[in-house]
Amino acid sequence: GDSVTQMEGPVTLSEEAFLTINCTYTATGYPSLFWYVQYPGEGLQLLLKATKADDKGSNKGFEATYRKETTSFHLEKGSVQVSDSAVYFCALKVGTGFQKLVFGTGTRLLVSP
Amino acid sequence: DAGITQSPRHKVTETGTPVTLRCHQTENHRYMYWYRQDPGHGLRLIHYSYGVKDTDKGEVSDGYSVSRSKTEDFLLTLESATSSQTSVYFCAITREGQNTEAFFGQGTRLTVV
After folding, report:
1. Model pLDDT for residues B32-52, shown as the tens digit of each residue
2. Nearest Cβ partner of B102 from A41, A101, A106?
3. 20 to 30 A from A29, CA-CA: which of A70, A111, B18, B103?
4. Do A44 and B43 touch (CB under 8 A)?
């Protein structure tokens, strides 16, 4: 079935460090891929997305490239800030008619000053 | 912000009592979802709806039922709450199309004692 696997956390970094959060997926068909972010006490909100192979999604300094050959969508940021501390979810959406939305388990990022 | 609200935001209830959570949207989106979020599991789909009176089960639907009598409202009912249903519940909405992102409510924290 369709699934998303992302690295377990927490990921602990110092401010201005480079961030990578790994995400791989399994899907029937050709999914769209998303990263969502959840700040404490809030719902999820879209961070970025990519809808086809080799697309790069980007937002707020975060980037992820849709790699069909490795079925991956790793999240990166060149220099993290304390305000980036949150839980990050990788997700895919696939299907004709009803589109199934499948999430990974989430990765908590903690950035210290 | 997407027009999606959940109520109540917090609830404590006793084992064996019925509980109904409400999701209300003002976006006229066709698809609505109920997820639960638990540590180590990420978001798991409980039920979803693809239109008025059209609903179906997700991966963790046992013990839950839903109803959608109007486009804007999607109700989740725990017929007889159990301690294993203590969780944070999120409602999400999406437009049609594989490339469209989901918008989330702020969540309902339910504690069953």
Report:
1. 999 999 988 889 999 999 999
2. A101
3. B103
4. yes
